[in-house]
Amino acid sequence: MLQAVYQTIFKEELLLIEVQESIYDKLAEKFPGFIGQSMFISYRPFLQGKIETEEQKQAFNDLVEFLDNMDNPPSMTDEEKEFYQSTAAEISLEMMQKTTEDKINAVHSGDKWFKENAENIKNYIKYRNFEEYRLSPAYTVANKMRDYLKESGFYDVAIPLIRKTSPAYDKYYVKLIELNEKYEEKLENLSIE
Predict the structure, then answer these.
(1) For a pLDDT cut of 70, what percent of the chain falls above it?
(2) Which residues contact 108 (CB under 8 A, 6 or more apart)?
(3) Cα 56 from chain centre
(4) 152 Cβ partners below 8 Å, 6+ apart?
(5) Domain count, the chain
(6) Cα dihedral 75/77/83/85 (nearest 10)
């Protein structure tokens, strides 16, 4: 009896490790280097839980299959590659983890974070509207990646599968959408000022 319990626990732990490693590996394969690492980091906190239901197992398997079948990301120009290599050299794994933690905390504290950071948000929006930024490798790669993820179905297929695989990510995603809807008009007003 006790041996059966231990075997069940062991199988659950192996599945958890497989989920974490497989999704991380798949993201790293599709998005090598700095871009892949930053994607990997942003989902990592939500892939720590156990897969407990058949729906979660199926979603995980579907997600791995989807990532396996995605086309490769668009190529980058030499200037874009150089920009991201220099950026990667300046940003440590710890910095990326801290940014992810801060982003999660900001979503969970919504109103408070928005009020405390309104000036920073305003400055960020202004920066993103500068022509210098719009001509930069950061802008062109961000657009390429956004278009690629949209066209490949990542947003329509992978995100819902991650939500099914991870209840923690699903809660985060719902909160993120609520905040986006709540602050969308305020953000538009900040960009006009």
Answers:
(1) 76
(2) 175
(3) 19
(4) 70, 71
(5) 1
(6) 50
